[in-house]
Write a structure and sequence with these properties.
The protein contains 15 helices and 13 strands. The longest helix has 19 residues. The radius of gyration is 21 Å and the shape is globular. It has two domains: about 190 residues, Glycogen Phosphorylase B (Rossmann fold), CATH 3.40.50.2000; about 170 residues, Rossmann fold, CATH 3.40.50. α1 packs across α15. It has about 375 residues and is α/β, with parallel strands linked by helices. β6, α7 and β7 form a beta-alpha-beta unit. Helix content is about 45%, strand content about 20%. About 40% of the residues are buried.
Length: about 375
């Protein structure tokens, strides 16, 4: 491939801070593509780390308005703002994060001859499956895109279905990754007998189904301990449910942690519990846990199975009894846990952000040729 420097315009229509896996991914991803000059469109307030992550960061001024009677006027206003920026920046390509959200729609309607690569993250697919208007928006963005990137085959197939299989040839698989160079695996202590010290990290909402892990602990034969790290609308409900089940001393809740602090703490646990019971686009936290030497117990979803395969231990999604049995089995089997640590470290090496960056840059070069 040529060493041509590409001028790329991208953005996420949120405050520019570490508020989600997608935001962290984008920050790492464009930092892993030094041959690309990236202009990022976001919203205030701006975390200082985001200012350093991109060559240029521009905050959008159009007031956000969700789907509803004000959505079309909002998109029109956002489109005018984005159009003026495109005219000024003159990018070689546009990376439209989230297939079908408002900013991608604004890119689509103002790009002209500038090629667009639409990049799916999961929430965009979830809302398109629930809403006709969101599905129409996804189809408009897909039709205008030279390529549509998905991190798993399972997510690509869902997009293919939602767009009537009209753009199958544009779908491109590029798995996500993490900054593996920053992960540090501590020397493993002697194996402790059960109970296990478990950790769960992520948003506390219905889809992440943290309640499955809490209720599973009340069903285990061994008194495992669970630390829940994160924030979300269900935090209070989860705490109350733990009390109702008599788990006051076995379930501990910690607030959302910056990634560096989360990574520092991960090696202190025996295993990671992943409980999502609906769509999971990729689940970067799975790779983060594995890169730090943690066996992963995961809800058996197609997207997650594709990423982990035999390097993790599946259970039936949303089933506390299935999870409880799985945790007890791992707690009793030292040799299996040792094998899972080795498998976890091996699998994590497949997902380096530098590989993701190289593949996205090569795709961008192809669509701009």
């Amino acid at each position: 491939m040529t060493s041509k420097t590409l001028n790329v315009l991208t953005g996420i229509n949120r405050t520019s801070e570490p508020s989600s896996g997608s935001m962290l991914l984008i920050k790492d991803l464009y930092g892993a593509m030094p041959e690309i000059h990236t202009t990022f469109l976001g919203r205030a307030p701006v975390d200082q780390a985001w200012t350093a992550a991109f060559d240029q960061l521009i905050t959008l001024s159009t007031t956000k308005r969700p789907q509803g009677p004000d959505f079309d006027p909002y998109v029109d206003e956002l489109t005018r703002e984005v159009g003026a920026l495109i005219e000024k920046i003159q990018p070689h390509a546009i990376h439209a994060q989230y297939v079908g959200f408002a900013l991608s729609l604004a890119f689509t309607r103002t790009a002209g001859n500038i090629p667009i690569i639409a990049i799916a993250h999961g929430p965009d697919v979830m809302v398109a499956e629930r809403s006709t208007s969101e599905r129409e928006t996804m189809n408009e963005v897909a039709a205008a895109s030279a390529a549509i990137v998905a991190p798993t085959i399972a997510l690509a197939d869902r997009i293919d279905c939602l767009t009537g299989r009209r753009f199958t040839d544009r779908l491109t698989l590029i798995p996500w990754g993490i900054r593996l160079s920053d992960a540090r695996v501590h020397d493993q202590p002697p194996f402790r007998p059960a109970p296990l010290s478990l950790v769960h990290a992520g948003r506390l909402d219905d889809n992440k189904s943290t309640i499955t892990a809490v209720e599973a602990l009340a069903l285990t034969d061994q008194p495992h301990h669970l630390t829940v790290i994160g924030r979300g609308a269900l935090r209070e409900h989860l705490e109350q449910r733990a009390l109702e089940l008599g788990l006051r001393d076995r379930v501990h809740f910690d607030p959302f942690l910056p990634r560096a602090e989360l990574w520092r703490r991960l090696p202190n646990f025996d295993a990671f519990v992943f409980t999502t019971n609906g769509l999971e686009a990729f689940g970067l936290v799975l790779i983060e846990a594995q890169a730090h030497g943690l066996p992963v117990v995961y809800s058996d979803l197609p997207d997650v199975r594709e990423i982990l395969g035999s390097s993790g231990v599946p259970y039936t999604p949303g089933d506390p009894c299935s999870l409880a049995v799985t945790l007890d089995e791992i707690g009793r089997d030292f040799h299996r846990r040792k094998a899972l640590i080795k498998a976890a470290l091996h699998n994590a090496r497949r997902y380096d952000i530098t590989v993701t960056g190289r593949q996205l840059r090569e795709l961008t070069l192809r669509v701009t040729s």
